[in-house]
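Ticket #4471: structure export looks truncated?
Reporter: QA, pipeline team
Priority: medium

Steps to reproduce: submit the single chain below to the structure queue and open the exported record.
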Amino acid sequence: MVAAALEGLRFQITAGGEDFSGTLGEKPVLYRSSIQVPGRKRPVRHVVLLSAELMATTLGADSDARRTVLFHDEPDFILHRLSVRFGIPALPGWADWFHRELDRRKMLEPILGWNCSPVLVKGTKLRLLRLLSQGLKRGEIQVPGEGSWDVASSCPR
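Actual output as written to the record:
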């Protein structure tokens, strides 16, 4: 499978009783390692392959991206990861509203995952900023009022 993935060839995986066929695209990222298991003479070798598109969703990578893959679909996690990735100013209290807006605008797409609930977020930095801007203009989300925010310590008083 590793050779097929590195060559950009299609391969098939069976998991949970279902068959999946696909490719990791061009230039997948490969991580190889060995784990020493007590009681075994030789270490267990394993490999992790990730598509270049998935690797491009890491912090600071591809700020012009149109899609972001996240391994968890919780509102707090989605807002935090997108704000860190794109450098978007956001407050934790906006997470539920932000998640509802992404869902309402069909910008969230659940994807297959094992032991996680991954989601694909469709949208550029500019589109996400516009979404937050509209929420602020409509009063659906707010920035703490003047005098209730201590700028020096960046913490509410």
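Status: closed, not a bug. The export was complete when the record was re-opened. Leaving a note from the reviewer for reference: Residues 1-52 form one domain.
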